[in-house]
Amino acid sequence: MSLLKYIAIGAAVAYGISYAVKKNEDNGKSLIDELADKAPDLVDKLKEYAKDAIEQVSERAKEAKQSF
């Protein structure tokens, strides 16, 4: 049974990889190519989100410190 499970998992992984690298008919880019093109924008958004999260945590920490 475990061999069958590993075969099924391997087939699913192989299908996922082939889907990710398959070129799109519309623009000739794969899913990975599109993600690589969008990566700088995503990194900038994540940096902004992290900065906001750190500010919120530091404000809550200051409030908690003042309440003690």
Description:
This is YtxH domain-containing protein. It comes from Mucilaginibacter polytrichastri. This protein has two helices and no strands. With 68 residues, the chain is mainly α. The chain has one domain. The longest helix has 37 residues, at 31-67. The relative contact order is 0.06. The model has no long low-confidence stretch (mean pLDDT 92).
Number of domain modules = 1
Shape from CA axes? elongated
> Helical element count?
2
Q: What low-confidence regions span 5 or more consecutive residues with pLDDT below 50?
A: none
The mean pLDDT is: 92
Secondary-structure element order, N to C = HH
Percent of residues in helical segments? over 70%
Give the C-alpha Rg.
Answer: 22 Å
Q: How many beta-strand segments? A: 0
Strand content is under 5%
Derived structural class: mainly alpha
Query: Biggest β-sheet: count, sense, barrel?
Result: none
Report the end-to-end length measured between terminal Cα atoms.
59 Å
